[in-house]
Design brief:
mainly beta, four-stranded antiparallel beta sheet, globular
């Protein structure tokens, strides 16, 4: 039910905005988050946003470069990424959680992911 879009190829230092949409009726009842998985590496937590969108939490590696937001009327969550680095190259997936979380553990539904490639 979750679908990501907006991935692509960008040069180091550039920006991208990813979107995550759902056709589900209960989007506003879920914490929403992003994860990423680089080739040969485990999936890692990127960040999460609360139901109303006024609280976010990010992994340390984000270092202020990424911003998560949501529009409950559009049932869409966004990941704005700037100052991208080659090490940010990964498949980025969105997910939903019924509870507040700062890890991947509580996410219950996942999208297929969108590829982000950052060239040096």
């Amino acid at each position: 039910q979750l679908e990501e879009s907006g991935g692509g190829l960008v040069q180091a230092g550039g920006s991208l905005r990813l979107s995550c949409t759902t056709s589900g009726q209960s989007f506003h009842n879920y914490f929403m988050g992003w994860s990423r998985q680089a080739p040969g590496k485990e999936r890692e937590f990127v960040g999460v946003i609360n139901l109303s969108g006024d609280w976010t939490y990010y992994a340390d590696f984000v270092e202020g470069r990424f911003t998560i937001s949501r529009d409950n009327n559009k049932k869409t969550m966004y990941l704005e990424m700037s100052s991208l680095k080659p090490e940010d190259t990964a498949v980025y997936s969105c997910a939903s959680s019924p509870v507040a979380t700062r890890t991947l553990a509580n996410f219950v539904s996942w999208g297929q992911g969108t590829q982000v490639t950052v060239s040096s």
